[in-house]
Design brief:
- Helix 3 runs antiparallel to helix 4 and helix 4 packs parallel to helix 5.
- By secondary structure, the protein is an alpha/beta fold.
- A 4-stranded parallel β-sheet has the order 2-3-1-4, with helices on both faces.
- It has 5 helices and 4 strands.
- It has one domain.
Amino acid sequence: MKTHIHCGFHKTASTYLQRVLRDNAKRLSCYLTIINRIELSTYDLRMACLAYNSGRGKASAVRAELDRLAQRVAGSDRPVLITDEAFFGPHIGQDGETRLFPRAHEVSQMMVEAFAPHPVEILLYTRDESS
């Protein structure tokens, strides 16, 4: 089972992608297991990541939520796609944040460890800030 984790940067069509996935969930279900923010399936992990990235939460809370998700999809014979744009923390300007994903490396490592020994691909969409 390969796990794909989508962490889109703001204004990169993350919500659009999540809506398309939701609207086509039945058709995709034979090919892909989808854990989608738009269905609130990532809420607890999202909140743990936001708290950790802002310094108000602990890494252990993020690990616990990742472990719950990993258990949920354990044994899946299909690839897994987990999508939520807040896994790497608030965007610049949100909650007074002035840094761009300062703990992304740490959260990425926790993601890889949670789904081990299966491969994890982290998809981080970015955009040209000058536009």
